[in-house]
Amino acid sequence: MAVNPAKYFDVNETISPAVRHRQLVAGLKKTVVYAYRHAPATRALMDQAGVKPADIREYADLPKLPVTRKTDVIALQKINPPYGGFLTVPAESVARVFISPGPIYEPLHTPRIKWFARAFWAAGFRKGDVVVNTFTYHLSPAGMLFYEALRHCGATVVNTGAGNTEIQIQTMRDLQVNGFVGTPSFLMTIIKKAEEMGLDFLKDFHIQKAWFTGEMLAPSVRKILEETYRINTSQAYAVTEPGGCIAYECEKHSGLHMMDDYVIEIIDPLTGKQLPPGEVGEIAVTPIHNKAWGLLRFGTGDLSSYTTAKCACGRTAHRLTGILGRAGDAVKVRGMFVVGKQADEVIMNSGAVSRYQLLVTREGQRDVLTLKAECKEAHHDANTLAEAINTRFQNVCRVKIDHFVVSETGKLDEKSPKITDLRKWD
Length: 426
Prior knowledge:
Blueprint: H1 5-13, H2 17-38, H3 40-49, E1 68-69, H4 70-79, E2 96-100, E3 104-108, H5 113-122, E4 130-133, H6 142-152, E5 156-158, H7 165-174, E6 179-182, H8 184-196, H9 201-204, E7 209-212, H10 219-228, E8 232-239, E9 244-249, E10 256-258, E11 262-267, E12 281-287, E13 298-304, E14 306-307, E15 319-320, E16 325-326, E17 331-333, E18 336-338, H11 340-348, E19 353-363, E20 366-375, H12 382-397, E21 403-407, E22 419-421
Parallel strand pairs: 1-13, 4-5, 4-6, 6-7, 7-8, 19-22, 20-21
Antiparallel strand pairs: 2-3, 8-9, 9-10, 10-15, 11-12, 12-13, 13-16, 14-15, 17-18, 19-20
């Protein structure tokens, strides 16, 4: 690939805040005009709100636009398949289609390797590194996009994909892999499994750096990986619907630098009002370089705050202070979102459940999902019901329910949220 990665990343990441602001505002205005002209769904949403492209001239004008959420995209794609009216290019020009839970069909028109390459470059991935990419290459965009981004940085990629812990271990040893891409819980699973097999991770493996996304990197886990196993860790924040990598960590670990491919806001999830630096709110994203996807002001449901303070690394973009939780009823479990509306559809459509509650907990380094359900029939076969619900649940939400508990009638509080996140990230 005829590029000089070091020059490309350094030049773009260290421009002055004033120049970056002008570039982002210019991109925003062009994007709004383009989406209004070419994406019927966006035009309809803006018309309904009484907003014209000329009304969006600055960051401060964005609250005039409605916030579009994952559930909205799912609903619109069902009404107007396959892309819900957000596709802005001829269908025959779509290079790939990725599928996220919902399902949401996400068209890829032009290569997006640089969107994640910047995050991998900041994490220290270079030519000569041998990296296992443990994200799935099936349906979701993660595996393929991470592969392309790592190649852009010059690294050799081992396409292991998800699961198969013992094969991962053998591969990592045979190829003397020194880089890991995946979730922190899966790396901890690999380490613990290797130790159960009688291996010494420090002596028998060569992992020097690890890059994470898909779930929170708890400070306690980072400490174990860095101090006990001497692995340099980095993380990124990614959302598939608006395009990919939203923000990434540098070597200073002092927040996540916002990507220049998006206009990013922190908003009040109830009103859509923009919030100032330091105040916690929902992350809303408007992609400005994705010419195939007219998605404006996408509400991610994730909570964060941001800082405008200069980072010691020299990068000048604003930084997210971390992902603090979920604003809505969608909870990320083992790297996949469990959306309340989808869970409700799966569980209640079984016909046997009158009330339920999903609990997300943490056991060791793994997310655990428990379904508590009140059944309509007192003598219903719980095992058969659990198997039927879990099969459908995995097909729709792409995550497995670990425990199925039948509760007595009236024991579940109908006012309690249907999905409760009980994990503690300390």
